[in-house]
Fold this protein.
Amino acid sequence: MTTCTERSRIDAHFEGEISPDAERAMRMHLPTCAACQARYERWLVLSRLDPAIPSAKARLARGLGLEDRRSVVHRFGVTAATILAAAAVLLLWLHPGAQSPGFAARGGVARAASSRVFVYDVHPGKPPVLAPDSVTRGDELAFAYENGAAKSHLMIFGVDEHHHVYWFFPAWVSESDNPIAIPIEHDDQRHELPEAVRHDFDGSHLEIRSLFLDAPVNVSQVEAMLREHPVGPLPIPGAVEMPASFVVVP
Amino acid sequence: MPVGVTPWVADFHAGDRGVLEQCYRDHHRAVVSAVGRMLKGADAETVTHEVFYRLLSNPRLRDNFQGGNFEAWLLQVATNAARDYLRRYRREQPEATDAAAPHDASSEDASEADAKMTVGRFQRDCLPPDLAGVFDARFLRQLSQREAARELGVPRTTLVYQEQRVRALLKDFVLGAPP
């Protein structure tokens, strides 16, 4: 099979990263190119299997420059029980009465109090609870966010008193990877991030920092900035940074 | 505002962003269904994009709606767009290969069969045995990570790591497969 130069646009479309102009160009090209049609069809097969690929509705919305505020569940082999279970988890976590654990935007960056992150302590065998000012060592931490500032990407990481960095989102599980900030919804609704993360904290104090960004930044860039700016906000234009301090309880 | 034109129609004609976004959210599924009666796969998604692209960018198209059943009007637009696509495509690409040809009515079944065959080949030829459980739980049954981790008896961080390995293998397998 030949490789067409337009192929990267198809990949960007399914990865939810395409601009409306590029989408339009891709759509004009697609019916005229057998190689690109074949790649698109294979992406469609992949999208039926991989829950990380956006739905067709979300993909087209992105390509049109629209925001798809609702997700559509139509996946290969998904069951009603799965949907109900997922809904139950969301209801459990995203109860409207939950209070912020103390995040506040800090200086040198665009200030938008409506973008914030909520930290939940997930103790084994118990429901997640909003972490007030402490987290238990060994527990998983889970997160939800509100994005009233309509930023496009989010990073969440922790820094202890020894300047050790613990990544929550994006996950960083291999030294050979250099993951980038995760894309987020552009509305002010509260959204649960889909997995909880456990780290073996070796300090007694943890500052969990959330970066709402206009463009994706990778973890290596952030760690380099942390080394140069161990105190205070990171120098990322347009970023909204939300720090919150926690005591790590043994 | 012309007599008889409701405020919603006036906003629609004016291209009000909120109204048009709501149109997409409310009628996407119906347009997909209408287009899907004539086209499948990439062709169907391209025409669906074309319908909403024109709705967003073409005031003359929007002016054609003068009130009444909006979805019926939009579905007629979608049907015409699918018909035009078929006509244009057949005229411009008389020697198209099978891979690029529009699908017939049976292609949905073929697509389902293709997906199942892909899964079977992936499981047989590519998936390491230690990742079979994660593939089944997360990709085939699409359990949440929480449910999958509980069912497999692993920490969720382990599940996330394994899921990433499966995702990379699956992507290489599906996108790297010959057409």
User: Anything to note?
Assistant: Confidence is low (pLDDT under 50) at residues 68-112 of chain A. The first helix of chain A runs from residue 7 to 14. Residues 7-64 of chain A form one domain. Chain A touches chain B through 56 residues (CB under 8 Å).
